[in-house]
Amino acid sequence: MFKIGDKIVYxxxxxxxxxxxxxxxxxxxxxxxxILRMPIGDMKVMVPVENIEEVGVRDIITExxxxxxxxxxxxxxxxxxxxxxxxxxxxxxxxxxxxxxKIAEVVRNLxxxxxxxxxxxxxxxxxxxxxxxxxxxxxxxANLSILEIERLVQEAIFNEQT
Length: 162
Description:
Distance between the termini: 42 Å
Order of helices and strands: EEEEEHHHHH
Structural class: alpha+beta
CATH architecture of the largest domain: Up-down Bundle
CATH class of the largest domain: Mainly Alpha
Radius of gyration: 17 Å
Number of domains: 2
CATH topology of the largest domain: Methane Monooxygenase Hydroxylase, Chain G, domain 1
Shape: globular
Helix content: 40-55%
CATH superfamily of the largest domain: CarD-like, C-terminal domain
Strand content: 15-25%
Number of strands: 5
Mean pLDDT: 93
Strand order of the largest sheet: 4-3-2-1-5
């Protein structure tokens, strides 16, 4: 079980640090919630303790796994459906898993596609959401600032050197 101070990932929201455990009354029932502080946007999220396993909350990745994420970001774009609707659904399915490796693939693929031919409004929003999820976990796992992570991810995807 998780405790205050743990760094965890809440799928579809990203990674954060458990700041507190609160009891809230919702629809006449008292429930326990972890208060999760997200490193991006200094947002706070309430995570219901009783549903933690069903929603896929997990520990953040290790420093070794951070290296694996950057290897994925450096890879070539994966084969994706040409139809934007099918591509959108496939990418959304990847994001919903909460699997950081799949989210890294989505960020890489959509970033490259955006540079090659541009993205639709929906895919651009998806890319931004996927980046927030990816960056939040990398910030906590690598202990770097958001600006450093953004720069490193950009360099990895587009093989740039600064």
